[in-house]
Structures are given as C-alpha cells and as structure tokens.
Specification:
The chain has 335 residues and is mainly alpha-helical. The chain contains 13 helices and no strands.
Length: 335
C-alpha cells in the first residue's frame, strides 16, 4: 500500500514538474490581461496564449484520469476556465456594447417585428374606436370602461370647465397624480403584454384592445365637451412615445405567441426561445422609451401649456422614433 501511495505522489510531482512552468506562464498572462487590458500583452503573448490554453486543457484531461491530487485538478479547472473566457469570450467595453445595442441591436429587432407591430396597433385602434362609439352613444359606458382610480373625477359628471382645467393646470396634487397613475398603468400594460405572449398571444391581444378602449373612452368624453383638440395635445406630448412603447411591447408578446402557435419546422419550445430573444431586446428598449415618456409626462406636459407646441413636440418625438427604428432598414433595402 505504501508503495502505491509513493508511486502516486511521485507521479503527481513529476507530472506537475514537467508542466508547471507552462501553467504559471498562462496564469501570469491572464493576470496581466484581467488586471488591465489586452494591450498589456505583446503580439507574441497573444499568439502563445491559445497554445498554452490547449496545453492546460490537455494537462487537465490527463490529471483527471491519472492523479489523485484533487487540489491540482481544481487548480487546472480554474485556470482553464479563466483562459477559455479570455480566448473565446467577447472582449468589448460596456460603452461599446451599449452603443452597439442602441445603434444596431434594438432598431434591428424592432424592424423584424413590423408585422406584429402593425397587428398590435390595429388591436389598440380597434379598442379605441369601439369605446369611442360606445361612450358617444351612451356616456354610462365610460364608468364601465375606465377604472375609478384612473379617471380621477374626469368622468361624465364633471363640468366642462373642470375638464378643461385638468389639461392645463400644474397642480401637483391633481393632474400629476393622474399622470403618475397613467404612466404606471401603461408600464404595467407593456410588461404584461410582453410576458403573457407565451399564452398563445391571447392575453396580449386583449390588453392591446383594452388599453385602446381606455383611450377611446377619454377621447369621447372630451370631444363631446368640445375639448378634443386640447386633449390631443395634452395626451400626445408624451403619448407619442409612451403609446409607441406599448405597441412595441404588444408586438413582442404577439411574436412569442404566434411562434408558439405556428412554430414552423422547429419545436414549439425552440421557436418560442428564438422569438423570446428578439422580444427581450425590444423590451429592453421599451423600458428606455417609457422612461423618456415619463420625463415628458412629468415635466414637459406640466410646463408646456400651448397646444401647438405640445403637438409639435409630439410630432417630433413620433417621427424621430420612426426614423430611428425604420430609416436605416429602408436605406439598406434601397442599396
């Protein structure tokens, strides 16, 4: 027994002695690179590093089969893991990755969802039109469509002057509360529209219709009081961004749902996974849009009370988003 133990120790020591210099060389390179930048490595180092990595992998394989030295195996596993991420990992700065997301990844993902985006828009418009006609025909429908907390007293029982005042007041205890509630509501709709897409897109479609119905009911109320134009400026100064974001979130949910229903040649799980990757990229950008809409809602709408200025900002934001998302694709298509 003692002879076997001595042979094992001797074998482990010999194995380490023959290769340890290469391991230390690889570890030293990784330490320099991890401590600062790849620029700390010379051209010769960069050429040698993959060779040392493959040598370390070979040593790990041999150690697992022949040695009982667990500490050595753990050391080599850690060394090989670090080397793997350096050799094969994506080496880019956070700034470059963020720039790539906003210049390439996000707009490209949205362009691939153009069919679902049109479908999401159509569902929201259908809900808005239906609610508008219902409330125009019978104002009692307003309270059936709009949650009490969302209306905040802006219902058929309110006077015209009170409704007009809500469009221009900067009272933080009134309109600001309503604006916060509306922003929170729309953010929840966007998140749920995306998350529930896996349920064959049915909840997503219903959310788009219902969100449109809320808008349609409000428009019907204000139009009936002769405040339709004023409401448009008040709503669109932030809504051109916020509603666009909700429509895109709905499109992301619809993409997942339709892929689950119609997976094509893939399995449903794989189809949903691929659709989910694209939809997730879109949703990261949707969060940015909702934050931008929140700023417009919390500051721009409170400070800007001129109707035409509100419409000008709304138009600038809408066409700016459209150009950002779709113009690069049109230009490349022409080429």
């Amino acid at each position: 027994m003692r002879r076997v133990a001595n042979q094992t120790v001797f074998s482990s020591q010999t194995f380490r002695a023959e290769r340890e210099e290469d391991w230390q060389r690889l570890e030293e390179m990784l330490r320099r690179a991890e401590g600062g930048s790849v620029r700390r490595l010379s051209d010769d180092d960069l050429l040698e590093l993959p060779v040392l990595y493959r040598s370390a992998l070979s040593s790990l394989s041999v150690a697992r089969e022949t040695t009982l030295d667990l500490a050595l195996i753990n050391y080599l596993e850690g060394l090989c893991t670090r080397a793997y991420f350096f050799v094969y990992g994506v080496r880019t700065s956070l700034g470059r990755r963020t720039l790539g997301f906003f210049t390439e990844d996000w707009p490209a993902a949205i362009r691939t969802l153009w069919r679902e985006t049109l479908m999401s828009l159509a569902l929201m418009l259908a809900g808005a039109l239906a609610a508008y006609l219902l409330v125009q025909g019978n104002p009692d429908w307003f309270n059936s469509i709009i949650p009490q907390g969302l209306s905040g007293g802006r219902d058929p029982s309110a006077s015209t002057e009170m409704l007009r005042e809500t469009l221009y007041t900067s009272d933080q205890s009134g309109l600001a509360v309503f604006a916060t509630y509306l922003f929170t509501h729309n953010s929840q709709v966007a998140i749920f529209a995306f998350a529930l897409g896996f349920a064959f897109a049915v909840p997503t479609a219903l959310l788009m219709v219902y969100n449109g119905a809320i808008l349609g009911a409000f428009v019907a109320l204000f139009v009936e009081r002769g405040l339709g134009f004023e409401l448009g400026g008040w709503l669109l100064i932030h809504g051109s961004t916020e509603l666009f974001a909700i429509i895109l979130a709905g499109a992301a949910g619809l993409r997942i749902g339709t892929k689950v229903i119609f997976p094509g040649m893939q399995s449903r799980l794989n189809a949903a996974r691929e659709a989910g990757k694209t939809a997730a990229v879109v949703m990261i950008g949707v969060i940015v849009m909702l934050l931008a809409a929140g700023l417009l809602e919390g500051f721009g709408r409170q400070l800007i009370t001129e109707d035409l200025t509100r419409y000008a900002i709304a138009s600038m934001m809408f066409f700016g988003w459209c150009a950002y998302f779709y113009l690069p694709g049109l230009i490349r298509g022409q080429r």
